[in-house]
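Bug #77: duplicate submission created two jobs. Keeping one. Sequence:
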Amino acid sequence: MFDALYISATGMQAQQLNVDTIANNLANVNTNGFKKSKVGFADLMVAGAARSPANLDAMGLLGGAPRVGAGVSISGLKKLFDMGDLKKTESAYDIAIQGDGFLEVSMPDGSSAYTRGGTLRVNREGLLSTSGGFPLKPNLSIPGNAQELTIESTGRVLAVVTGQSTPVEIGQLELVRFTNASNLQPEGDNLYRTNSESGEPISGRAGEEGMGSLAQGFVEGSNVKLTEEMVSLMVAQRVYEANVKLIQASDEMLGMINGLRR
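Kept job's structure:
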C-alpha cells in the first residue's frame, strides 16, 4: 500500500487545525485584548520496526532505501502575546497594559485567572472587576458616591467622592507576569490560566521589575494582523489542496496496479 495515502492524510488533518486556528484569529480581529494563536508542526518518522534487519529481506530492493518521513503532526498551539495597538476610549474604566503583564482576577471557585482585557466595571459587590464581573486581585472597593476615578500608570487608584474635592486613594492595582506566557491556557472571555509550562505568576507594581505601565482611557486591541492571517490562510489552503492531489494520485496509481493484465 502506498504510504503517501497516510502521509497526505496527516497533512490534511494538520492543515485543518491550522485553518481552524486562523479562522479563530480572524473572528477575533476586533476583540479587545485578544492574542492570536499559532500552530506548530513536527515531522513524523518511519516506525523502526518497518525497516528492522528482520524485515529487510521481505522488503527486497526497497530494503536499502533511505528513511522517509511518515507525515506531519501538531507540535503545539501557542498564544503570541505581541502588543496590540492601543485604542483611545476616554472611559475612566478602560485601561491598557503597555508592555508585559496581566491583571489577576478572582474566579468564583476561589482560583485565579489572568487577563489583558482592560475594560473594567464595578460589580454588584462594589468591587472593580472585569467586564464579565470577576473582581480584580487585590480587591478594590469603589465608593458608591465616587464621581471620578483615576488609575495612574503605576496602578494607584484614586476616586473623588461627593462633597470632597481631594481625591481619595482606593488602593493599588498589581500586575503579574510569567516566565513562559505563551503556554498559558486560554479560558475564553479574555482569561488565561496557569499550567506547568507557563510557570508561576510573578507579582509586581506596574512600571517596575519588567512590568508594563497602565494607560487609563485606552484599551489594547487585538494583535491579529489581517494581511498576515490572509496570507497564512492561502498557504494553508494550498498545502491542503496539494495533499488532496497526492491522495488522488496515489489512488489512481493503485487503480492502475489493479488494472494490470498478465
